[in-house]
Write a structure and sequence with these properties.
It is a single chain. With about 290 residues, this protein is mainly alpha-helical. It has a single domain, classed as Orthogonal Bundle (MetI-like fold). The protein is built from 13 helices and 2 strands; from the N terminus they run αββαααααααααααα. A two-stranded antiparallel sheet has the order 1-2. A hairpin with a 6-residue loop joins strand 1 and strand 2. Helix 1 packs across helix 13 and helix 3 runs antiparallel to helix 10. The longest helix is centred in the first third of the chain and has 35 residues. The protein is flat.
């Protein structure tokens, strides 16, 4: 019997170590995805389901609640994500500055919000922007308003609160990515720019942003994915039954647990998020490759 070569042993042991993780990923991720897709091709109430093909997917275009949820999510996406990533870039540039004192303290303060539980964050913002909350009290004392603003039941202000909350919570998370990228950049690049007379603003737009382009693309895709799956913030901040802030994930939850269980259609709505994430990620990658 021939002895197994060293390279084949490495390959064999590599497969042995990878196999358990692969099986776990398959049974916990890919298998449920396949089952969810099969379920999306069926319709019915509860467990009495029948196969209807793509009828559930055609139903999406006629569903007013789904269209409203998609509209809300894209408002959050278009407004919040660019603002959050731009703030994260600014914060990362400031935290990377050599003249800044007490960097560990400021870095901890910036990152701290994203360590809080989503439910706790949502409850805090709900309290702050309530009728008798801090914001209304401050505005009344400053004579900026004559009566309290009902933030959480107003279509415009409720979206504003959700966007503000998401931005506050996740800006620090993206700042860490950009800060890590900036720390890997050679300082001589910025020194050369300063010698050539480039201002801090010019260095930011013509050096920092181009150098961090791959990381910006990564955070853009992650932020898009997270925003399309937004759930806790909108559900806790807005009163129950609110339609003007409903998200796609919240609508899936309603179809599963609050309405008559429509398992097939809920799976269809969940797959719509997958399709949107895939399409937007593909577009972002294409645009990122061209720039």
């Amino acid at each position: 019997m021939k002895a197994i070569s060293l390279s084949k042993k490495y390959t064999l042991w590599g497969f042995i170590f990878v196999t358990p993780a692969t099986l776990l990923i398959f049974f916990l991720s890919f298998y449920p995805m396949v089952q969810a897709f099969i379920l999306s091709l069926q319709t019915g109430i509860g467990m009495s389901l029948r196969f209807v093909g793509l009828r559930n997917y055609l139903r999406l275009f006629e569903d007013e609640i789904f269209r409203n949820a998609v509209r809300n999510v894209f408002i959050y996406l278009i407004v919040q994500v660019p603002v959050m990533l731009f703030l994260a870039l600014i914060l990362a540039s400031v935290l990377n500055s050599k003249v800044l004192k007490g960097k560990p303290i400021f870095r901890t303060m910036v990152f701290l919000p994203c360590t809080m539980a989503l439910v706790s964050t949502a409850l805090i913002f709900r309290s702050i922007f309530s009728v008798d909350g801090i914001v209304n009290i401050f505005l009344l004392n400053m004579n900026l308003i004559s009566t309290q603003i009902i933030f959480l039941t107003d279509p415009f202000w409720a979206k504003f609160v959700i966007i503000l909350m998401i931005t506050w919570r996740w800006t620090g998370y993206n700042t860490i990515f950009y800060l890590a990228g900036l720390q890997s950049v050679d300082d001589s690049i910025y020194e050369s720019a300063r010698i050539d007379g480039a201002s801090s603003m010019q260095q930011f737009f013509y050096l920092t942003i181009p150098l961090l382009r791959p990381i910006i693309l990564l955070t853009l895709i992650m932020s898009t994915n997270g925003t399309l799956q937004l759930f806790d913030e909108a559900r806790i901040v807005s009163p129950p039954g609110t339609v003007f802030t409903i998200t796609i994930s919240q609508y899936i939850y309603n179809l599963f647990f609050q309405m008559s269980p429509q398992l097939g259609y809920a799976s269809t709505v969940s797959y719509s998020i997958l399709f949107m994430v895939a399409i937007l990620a593909f577009i972002q990658l294409k645009i990122g490759d061209r720039t």
